[in-house]
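A protein record pairs a chain with a discrete description of its three-dimensional fold. The following entry can be read in just this way.
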Amino acid sequence: MIKRVLPIAMLGAAFISNTGCKSNGGDFKKINGIEYKIVKDAPGATAKMGDIVEFEMVANVDTTVLNDTRKQGRPGVVRVDSSRNKGDFQAIFPMLSVGDSAVVEISCDTILAGIPPAQMQGAPAWMKKGKKIHVTIAITAIKSMEEYKKEMEGKQAEEMKKMQEKAAAQLPIDDKNLQEYFAKNNLKPEKTASGLYYTIVKKGTGENAKAGQMVSMNYTGKGLDGTIFDSNMDEKFGHKSVFTFPLGAGQVIKGWDEGVQLLNKGAKAIFYIPSSMAYGEQGRPSIGPNANLIFDVEVLDIKAGGGNPQMQAAQ
């Protein structure tokens, strides 16, 4: 999809009925290559440059609906900024306040005029000369960037808390399954306080790896049934090369970030990782939900220069 078309296709986010709204009447006005009319003008301050606007909307060309926020289950969110492209519907936001609704019409001719000929073949079928994109918008919230960041941080903290609670509830189940696997296969691995099991097959030399260092490894991952789901030593997985990552930066699963710190250069080990320290209930395409995993690992090298693990995790 061509870049100029994508923002327009994303406009139509939710079907908004104008029933009950008092029309201001009058003809459409023009700004930045769009035509607009404010259908409902509620009291309140309009959005300022830099504010975050949340809105419900629908965009369509004739009977083709381009997008719908209610179907997405969340409102559209955008930072009010100077419209860079002619025909950008966001030019209307500085004129709207919470509770306002408006209709915007964008000529496909305006958009097509800004598309290089070489990219014309990427235009969607509805993008034709003479057609208009009809957008209906209702503003549900306007927040300063500071307010929005604070709100997002709160939501992220709440989501993290829920994930931690689920992981804590799942850990005893994982541990029971792992204990049964060990008993069945006559295995006696070591266990960390967090619930990670491990067996050091071969000791290495030097100090153990530390958070912030760059670690290079070989690995093979499999489920408790022995099915291999990934390996950097098997060509069929498409990445047969040494795997290097910053330890403790959250770029690998929790079981790895903890387990690798038990090893030094040249060490070989087996990690038995509970799902709560792996991919949890989400799983992965080749890993089921709440799957306990086994990794055969070998530390090839440990170097300084991984940087601040907390900062990398935040990024």
Notes: The longest strand covers residues 132-143. The chain has a mean pLDDT of 86. Residues 152 and 158 are 10 Å apart (CA to CA).
